[in-house]
UniProtKB/TrEMBL annotation:
SUPFAM superfamilies linked to this entry: FMN-binding split barrel
Domain of life of the native organism: Eukaryota
Transmembrane segments: 234-255
Keyword Transmembrane (UniProt): yes
Keywords assigned by UniProt, alphabetized: Membrane, Transmembrane, Transmembrane helix
Protein name: Pyridoxamine phosphate oxidase family protein
Length: 296
């Protein structure tokens, strides 16, 4: 059975930091691409401030989906799962905020996390945790290892304080450091900025991405953000059209009933049909212009 919490209990915090990997899930408000990303080594990249606040280091990568989605709607889910003999899935439902590497608060945030900054870190993602869920994880495979030793004890409230948490959940995994080496190489060649401009400026759905990358390519951040907000506001032309139709119908009904004292249904429906056809053509043409203007 799933269990829900309004905050991140200490025994689950301890368990989460023992895992080898966590995952981030996000989505645009209207776009088609729903993103899911793995993040390695939580003990080196994730900091838990208290039961409702955490943060993780966001390293330079080949996309900017999570950052773009957070900038647009703030929605973010973090998931941990056990690959050991004691199953568990943990989800953190969060509202995210982004502190980019060129922001004045970046170094202060890194210091508050008490983690070593990894070269090439492009941002810190701050997490406001508003709900926590655990579930069984019975279908998640077990990663076998010859040194697992005794079966892990269940991580329940009080287990850490009693000294019952002895087994390392990360056994059977080897940390991969290729990304850090790749970023150091890019920095030494002074090519990291160019890479971010190419791959981190926009999401797959065309949403604004890393602001530092957008500034480096000469884009006005506030104009780009304003265009994105305008696009989202106009994304549902059918809803706009329906509102206009209802307004026209109500206006016609009121005018007709006030002038004749009765409502001619056939005449009203015929008028509504003509209005619907004209509005449909207008909205279709307008939407084509808007879509081409935003390059989507």
């Amino acid at each position: 059975m799933p269990h829900f919490y309004d905050s991140f209990p200490p025994h689950l915090q301890e368990w989460a930091l023992e895992q080898s990997v966590f995952f981030t899930a996000s989505a645009p408000t209207y776009g088609r691409h729903i993103n899911l990303s793995p993040k390695g080594v939580p003990s080196s990249t994730l900091a838990i401030f208290d039961e409702n606040h955490a943060a993780y280091l966001d390293l330079t990568g080949s996309g900017t989906e999570t950052i773009s989605h957070i900038y647009e709607n703030g929605r973010l889910t973090i998931m941990f799962c056990s690959f050991s003999s004691k199953p568990r899935i943990l989800r953190l439902f969060c509202t995210g905020r982004v502190v980019e590497h060129d922001h004045p608060a970046f170094q202060e945030t890194i210091a508050a996390m008490k983690l070593a900054e990894i070269p090439g870190t492009r941002a810190v993602v701050l997490l406001d945790i508003w709900k926590v869920q655990t579930s069984c994880g019975y279908a998640v495979p077990v990663v076998e290892s010859s040194d697992l030793g005794e079966t892990e004890k269940a991580i329940e409230p009080g287990a850490v304080e009693k000294g019952e948490l002895k087994q390392a959940s990360r056994r059977g995994f080897d940390d991969r450091h290729m990304l850090e080496k790749w970023m150091v190489n890019k920095i030494e060649k002074k090519a990291l900025g160019e890479y971010r401009i190419k791959w981190n400026s926009r999401s797959l759905d065309g949403l604004p991405g890393l602001r530092a990358a957008r500034r480096m390519k000469g884009e006005s951040v506030w104009i780009g953000d304003a265009r994105a907000r305008a696009y989202n506001a106009l994304y549902h032309p059918m809803a706009v059209m329906l509102g206009m139709i209802l307004g026209v119908v109500l206006t016609l009904a009121v005018l007709q009933s006030s002038s004749s004292g009765t409502l001619n249904v056939d005449k009203t429906l015929a008028t509504l049909y003509l209005v619907l056809r004209r509005l449909s053509l207008m909205v279709e043409r307008s939407w084509t212009v808007v879509s081409e203007g935003f390059g989507r």
